[in-house]
Amino acid sequence: MTFESDKSSYTVVSTLFSGDANACYVVRPTDDMDGRNFFIIAVKDHEIIRSLMEASGRIKSLEESQLVDAFSHGNEYILVFPYRQERPIDRFFEGDAYTLSQVEEIGRNLLMTCMTASLPFPMLYLLLEQSCINLARDGSTYLTFVVDLQALDLKRTERDCTVKCAEILRDLLSSKADQKNVSFELISRKCENNSYNSFTELYRDLQIAAMPVERVGFFIRIKSFFVRNADLLFGILFWVCVILGIVALVLLLTHVVWGDLPIFRWFINNFKNIGTESLQQ
User: Fold this and answer.
1) What is the C-alpha separation between 40 and 12, in angstroms, rounded?
2) 12 neighbors 27 (Cβ within 8 angstroms)
3) Between these two residues, 99 and 281, which has the higher pLDDT value?
4) What is the pTM of this model?
5) Cβ atoms within 10 A of the Cβ of 43, count?
6) Which of 280, 271, 134, 104 has its CA nearest to residue 203?
7) What percent of the chain has a predicted confidence (pLDDT) above 90?
8) Which of 142-146, 176-180, 197-201, 204-208 comes out lowest in average pLDDT?
9) How far, in Å, CA of 67 to CA of 55, rounded?
10) How confident is the model at residue 259 (pLDDT cuts 50, 70, 90)?
11) H/E/C letters for each residue in the chain?
């Protein structure tokens, strides 16, 4: 089977999926001497075709778009994407094989893959939902495009995509939940409340969680201690002042009544005798 466009002619190498709404193929351009392969999504459903034609018309002009070609072929609408071997992250990610910092790096790679995909949000959400995120051996991530468009929901927005991406990140980071995993705690809490509205918010949280704890200087720690315990310290100081005031008042009254201070008399009498001899002799 061959698909013809204004740019190239694509020959089917293998069929990856065939459903009511679409089929997915691995194809090779007939005029490409390098032997590079591509993914093709052949869309059959006319409602989906109309929506995707409008969306792809907007993203084809973007330099970073993953969409290589888009054209009509008979009653089908053809979307062409770069081909890479499938390595689904939910199958090839083994948390025990990575350190916490490596897992966080994979999470950042996943987020950047979503942010730079330049795909319509309904399509990106479907890729996330149908496990089309892949993990390379070097820890980088990438998208593949073997999807069933029957489940495509055209109402999906960036918020939906961000929440789905955050859930995947949470699942990855859960493998290190027993460690001091700030990113896991933060993302888990926000996933429970569906708090994310954009990829920018999720990226910011990952960056905040990854910031190293700075060493605090000695004098800063002292100052911090006094600031944190100001009420307690002032309370102690108050009662010390009260006790000293009472002692001073007692000494004053004693001096008025006896003419001197008995406590001083005790010290003076002790110094009148040194050893076995009296100083008054």
Assistant:
1) 9
2) yes
3) 99
4) 0.69
5) 25
6) 104
7) 34
8) 176-180
9) 11
10) low
11) CEEECCCCEEEEEEEEEECCCEEEEEEEECCCCCCCCEEEEEECCHHHHHHHHHHHHHHCCCCCCCCCEEEEECCEEEEEEECCCCCEHHHHCCHHHCCHHHHHHHHHHHHHHHHCCCCCHHHHHHHHHCCCEEECCCCCEEECCCCCHHHCCCCCCHHHHHHHHHHHHHHHHHHHCCCCCHHHHHHHHHHHCCCCCCHHHHHHHHHHHHCCCCCCCHHHHHHHHHHHCHHHHHHHHHHHHHHHHHHHHHHHHHHHHHCCCHHHHHHHHHHHEECCEECCC
The answer to whether the CB of 226 falls within 8 A of the CB of 233 is: yes
Of 112-126, 139-153, 241-255, where does mean pLDDT reach its minimum? 241-255
Strand pairing category for 76-82 and 38-43: antiparallel
- In single-letter form, the type of residue at position 40 comes to I
Residue 236 in tokens: 């102690």
**73-77, 106-110, 185-189, 269-273 — which is least confidently predicted?**
269-273
Hey, what amino acid is at 256? V
Contact between residue 86 and residue 134 where contact means Cβ atoms under 8 Å apart: yes
Residue 5 neighbours by CB under 8 Å, 6+ apart:
69, 71, 73, 78, 80
